[in-house]
Every structure is written in structure tokens, then in C-alpha cells.
Please model this.
Amino acid sequence: MSEQKPAQATILQSLNQAFADAMEEDEKVVMLGEDVADPEGGGVTGATKGLSTRFGEHRCRSTPITEQAIVGAAIGASLAGYKPIAEIMLMNFTTVAMDMIFNHAAKLRYMSGGQTNVPIVIRTMTGAGFGTAGQHSDFLEAWFAHAAGLKVVAPSTAEDAYGLMRAAIDDPDPVIFVENMPIYWTPMPAPKKGHRTPIGKARIAAPGDDITIVTYSGMTHRTLGALEAMKAAGVSAEVIDLRSIQPWDQEAVFNSVEKTGRCMTVHEAVKPFGVGAEIAATVAERFHGKLKAPIERVASPFAPVPFAKPLETAFVPDSQRIAETAIRLVKGK
Amino acid sequence: MKNTFTPDGPTQIEIFRRMALLKGNDERSRKVVTAGRLVMPYYSYRGQEVIPAASFVSLTDQDYLCTIYRGIHDMLAKGLPLKDLWAEIAGREPGTCKGKGGPMHLTYPKRGVMVTTGVVGSSMPIANGLAWASQLSKDGRVAVATFGDGASNIGAFHESLNLASVWKLPTIFLCQNNGYGEHTKYEKATSAKQVADRAIGYNMPGVRVNGNDPFEMYSAFREAVERARAGEGPTLIEAMTFRFNGHVFGDNDAYMDPAEKKAAMEADPYPAFRKKLVESGVATEAQLAEIEAKVEADLDEAVNFALEAPFADLKEVMTDVYGDVA
Model:
């Protein structure tokens, strides 16, 4: 009897499938961004390939290089009943559109007393590893997670890339969808058509007993890559892939820390004032006096992302650093 | 310049009615704030009434408006009801936004008042999105972005006009040039001789009109509406006007030339248009007096309603941050 191999897909393919399925099901789902239509290549990484050919360039529309106008157009169309997916090619470029995102997308529901809402998805890719240096690699999720009215998600698997994208499109509020470039092309178990990953629900990426490691996006894979070294040192870690950063799944983290008594966070964003700090503070408030070790944050150092390969590699947390930190917290050395 | 369109008699009277409403509302707002009955940041639009009054008679309730913090005249001219407006600027529960938006964020989708922004220039990118929705739905609606001359220097202006032109959106960019961006005079802040000239760079029609002349304003705006509805794309209109009360109500106008201000106030378009309507026989003195009396009575009712209305329950601090996920 031959073993049936589960279907494989990459995050990129899964996102493309999510767009196609959503656009097929609901004509109000529209896409805009730089180079997203097929004549311009279907996106710089091909994430939107085929959509304009299939659904028309009026529904998958390439824009000028104009981030503020892209997000503004998405907001306006959403106020009129559409569900736009706006691509801001790189996360650093969201800064050009920050007024639209922070002052408008995030706040129009509140400032209008609930008369209007902004159901848009802003998808944006980032991550060090390609030598793109200081203005093309930053993880800025904490900026957005700090803005009441926005949701922020960052999948690490193909299933969740699909499931969170579908959930983000369904969502009645603006969702910042963070894509990590280095894990775009890795084959993983393929998503099922129509699958939704609820926003705000974490997943246990690996069960364990000694320490809870809270992470998300590409760092999930580096954390999983550290498990073997931990195991060799006699440390059993429970890895929580948050998937959603705002809101984040406190219940899942609390349940795990209740069991392990230790907590550390891992993210690629710089350490000060980051998502790890929020999680550490919340866990400390809840478990004061009950933790077996201090909460530690593994993150990038407080500097821009450097270009040179050895510097860039040293900048981003790797599996070795993650393992060493976890082992030290559990074993005390 | 010869006007392409001329408002008929009833339309002229309707323009006057809206002007009377806007003027009366501004005067009442300053009075109520001065008397200490209401505390709010107030950006007076007195002197700019003709622009939305003569323009928006060519719009329907379904057309969209994105306006700015000095835009209460725009909203009233678009049909936002007086009682809802006053309850909101008083921060009360029956206000359009339950008192959570206030005078700088009034919203009333039932009359197409979609966004009021407190950020200079930000009405424009969003108006484009509403216009894009109209283009997708083929429903013929137009989207109007109003803004001041100061906003023509911010990046959002450039990005928005460019995209609107490239996408041929039914957006009307209505610049109300009152000569000052906050405290800084036009000439000191703006490189273009006139804002309308900037349209050339976006390959769209740019027209400068006397925004205090109801006939010129009506014609230019209606032309822009017809272009937009016909799928011929956006228009930039620069309507020349003057704000009588400085940037924020209560500032001391020290940055303004007193002679310039005096001349502008002497050329107040309101009494001028009123006189013209009577002299041309379009309306009688009694008819106009009746319109004005109605405005005052409506304002009495709205102000009393607003100031007696309750504030929202404190739980509203945390509602409307997010919606319910289906």
C-alpha cells in the first residue's frame, strides 16, 4: 500500500489561491497595488498572478507608485461597500501611507460612531535575508498593533496564509497582513479551499512542558529549528505560533505558561517596545510570583537592518540563539 | 469668462437658502461658543458659503463628499440635518457620531457625508476610493473632495490628482482658496501662481473661479459633475474666497492684513446675492426674509435640542473600536 503524500503548497501559492477564491465568491473583493495586474507581472513575487486576467483589470488594478493614494483608494472603496485588498509592496513603504492607515482606516468606525467601517486588507511583505538592508526589511508590526482599530496578522504556514487571508477579507475592520519573504517559497501542507483561520487564535506549533516560546511569522520556523538542540539538552519547549498579533491569543499563552511556568518571546522586529515586550508584560501581570524564571525576549538588536551578509545574518535571531536562551532559562545556565 | 450653465430661478433661491443656512449656522456657532454654552475647537467658514451652496445643488444625496475640519458649510450644503449636526458638535448622544467624532469628524452617510478629516489633504485619497467604487459599480455617483489652498502643497494632493487622472475617476477636487493656510499667506507657501495651474501637470482640467459668485461657482461645478458622470474623469476647481474669522475661532488674526480683511468683509457675497435676487425679480424681499426666519427658527430648535441632549453612556468609550466578526 503506497502512502498518500499530503498535497503541498507554498505560502505564495496559497495567498494567490485565497485571492482567487475570494474574488470568485464575492465580486466586491477587489485588489490594487503596484504591479499587481498581469501586464505588470502579477506582483513582484507573482502573488497576484492570473487575477487580472481572470477577473479583469478593473478588479485587480495596478497603481502608480503611490502608497498614500493606494490606501486612500482602498479606504474610500470600502466605505462604498467594496472589500479591497491593497498591496503595499514592502512593509517599510507603509510608512508613506501612515496617515491613511493610522488616522483614517483605523479610526473611521470609531469617529463616525459606528456609521462607517473600513473592511480592507493591507498586505505587505518584509524580512531580512535578501540583502535589502535598512529600508526594505523591517518588521513594523508593533507600530500597527499599537493602533486601536487595526488588526495585525502574520502567518507562518501555507494553511494559515490562506486561512488568515480569507478571514482578513471577511473581517469588518482593517487588517494588516504581514508576509515574511524568506518563507514564501517553502513547500508546506496545502490549505483546503474555503478554510478560515480565525483572527485572534494561536496554534501550538509544538507541544512541550518546560518553557513556553511565543513567536510568529518566519521566526516560528527558526524556533522549531531550535527544538532539537533543546531536546538534546533535556529541554521540552512548547512553541506557540501566535498567527494574530492584534488581537493576540492571551488564553493560549496563559494556558501554556500555567503548565510550563516559563515564557520567552521570539520575533524578528527589534526588541525595545516590541510585541515581545507586550506579551512579557501581560504574562508578568498574570503570573507574578509564580514564574520559575524571568521572561526573556529574543529579538533583533536595536539598529537598522544591515546590508553585508555576515552582519545581516548576525542581526536576525537564529535557532542557536533561541535554543541557548531557552536552555539557560530552564537549566539556569 | 462666460458661464456654461446658469441656475434657473428656483435653483437660485435654493442656493440662497443654503447660503442663509450656512451663514446663520456659523454666526450661531460663534455666538454659542462665545457665550460659553459650548466648548469646542471651531474653524469658522464664514465668507466661504457660496462655494458649497452653489456647487452642491448639482449633487444628489447619493453623491459622496469627503471634507475637512473647516467643512461644516460643506456638510450642511450636502444635507446633513441641523439637529444631528448640533448634537454632534455638542458631543451629545443623538449626534451623528454619538459625540465621538465632534466638529472635526462629522459623518453622515445618508446624505453622502462619508469622511470629515482633521488632517490637511486627507480628504482627497479617500474621495478617489469612493469614486473608484462608483466606477466599478457604474452607478454614476461622483465623489467630491474639498480642501483648502494649503492642502495643495501636501503630498496627498499630488498622489490623489495623479491617480484620479490615470484612472479617470469621477472625483471633483474642490479647492477653497481663502488666501491662508493656517496663518501663512498663499504667496509665501505656494509656488504656483494659482492652484488651478497645477492641474496641467495631471492632465486634467483646472479652473479658477470666483468662489464668491454663485453663478460662476454653479457653472464650473456643474461642468465638473457632468464630466465626471459622463466618465470623462476628474476636475480641479479652485474657488477663490476669503475666511472672515481667521484659522481657528478665537485666534487674533495678527497674521492678516487688516485692510485685506476689511475689503473682503465689505465684499461679503451674502448680502450681494440677496440684493441681486430681489433686484432681478427672482425672489421677493418677503420670500428671502421668510427663508432667513426659518433658518433662525431651525437653529433655535437645533441648539436647544443639542444642549439639552444627554451625553452618551461612558461605555461608548470602548464601543465602535472594532465591529463584530460574523
